[in-house]
């Protein structure tokens, strides 16, 4: 992920929030057979909050643990796994900026998380699966939990052996949140309005994320002065990025 300080997401709590609200994860492993990718939901390990660590819990269906080489499965040495989390993202039309010249871009939030996975026991895996089901079922009016009935509990214990749970303690990460932070606030406001509209690129979730990321600027009277938001002014700090920069 190319580093850009304008969009860098370095706050650990913000990254945890991104994972919690967007738990569908892409896992990428470099194996003797080449690059292998799998897709599974993740949750955060709760006790990790005590020491400020970032730890993911997930599982794969057999035989994905061998394909990914989890914990040395398949006769390989335990190696690093990349977990990719992607939040709201979408196309931003140059017609929404309110000034020219400009080019289109794509706003997004994403985190790349690295660590060596630790395979869990069947008992630990079952507990992770219980928590995972609770995470998604609890908002429903009639949650269907793994332990909802004795019969369901027995069924869960039987099928858990078809999955392999693992813990990923994140040792390094790169995260980015590109939400038009470098644009004049009038342009940001216009983009948010378009995303909340009914056009082909409407995306309310992305609009909400943009509003949250740019809240300080949107609520600052000085930054909402039309005179100060004119990108035609000579001050480079008040202009949008060059086409070359914005395209990245």
Q: How does this structure look, described?
A:
- The protein has about 250 residues and is of the alpha+beta class.
- The protein contains eight helices and nine strands.
- It has a five-stranded antiparallel beta sheet with strand order 2-1-5-6-9. It has a four-stranded antiparallel beta sheet with strand order 3-4-8-7, sandwiched between helices.
- The N and C termini lie close together (about 10 Å).
- About 30% of the residues are buried.
Question: Which terms summarize this structure?
Answer:
248 residues; alpha+beta; five-stranded antiparallel β-sheet; 8 helices; 26% strand; globular
Share of helix among residues? 25-40%
Radius of gyration from CA coordinates: 22 Å
Number of strands: 9
Number of helices in the DSSP assignment: 8
Structural class estimated from helices and strands: alpha+beta
Question: Looking at the structure, what is the overall shape?
Answer: globular
Average pLDDT value? Answer: 88
The end-to-end span amounts to: 11 Å
Q: Report the sheet-strand fraction.
A: 25-35%
* SSE order: HEEEEHEEEHHEEHHHH
Largest sheet: 5 strands, antiparallel
Q: Runs with pLDDT <50, length 5+?
A: 228-248
Strand order, sheet with most strands? 2-1-5-6-9
Structure, briefly:
This protein is 28% helix and 26% strand. It has 248 residues and is α+β, with helices and mostly antiparallel strands.
């Amino acid at each position: 992920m190319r580093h850009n300080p304008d969009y860098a997401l370095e706050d650990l709590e913000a990254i945890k929030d991104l994972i919690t609200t967007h738990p569908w994860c892409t896992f990428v492993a470099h194996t003797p057979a080449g690059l292998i990718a799998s897709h599974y939901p993740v949750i955060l390990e709760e006790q990790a909050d005590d020491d400020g660590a970032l730890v993911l819990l997930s599982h794969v269906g057999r035989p994905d643990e061998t394909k990914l080489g989890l914990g040395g499965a398949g006769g390989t040495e335990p190696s690093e796994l990349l977990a990719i989390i992607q939040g709201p993202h979408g196309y931003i039309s140059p017609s929404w900026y309110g000034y020219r010249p400009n080019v289109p871009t794509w706003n997004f939030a994403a985190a790349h998380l690295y660590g060596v996975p630790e395979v869990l026991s069947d008992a630990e895996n079952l507990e992770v699966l219980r928590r995972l089901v609770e995470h998604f079922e609890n908002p429903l009016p009639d949650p269907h939990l793994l332990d909802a009935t004795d019969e369901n509990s027995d069924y869960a214990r039987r099928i858990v052996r078809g999955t392999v749970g693992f813990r990923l303690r994140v040792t390094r990460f790169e995260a980015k949140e590109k939400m038009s932070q470098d644009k004049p606030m009038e342009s940001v406001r216009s983009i948010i309005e378009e995303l909340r509209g009914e056009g082909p690129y409407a995306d309310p979730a992305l609009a909400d994320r943009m509003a949250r990321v740019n809240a300080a600027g949107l609520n600052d009277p000085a930054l909402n002065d039309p005179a100060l938001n004119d990108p035609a002014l000579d001050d480079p700090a008040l202009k949008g990025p060059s086409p070359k920069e914005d395209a990245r």
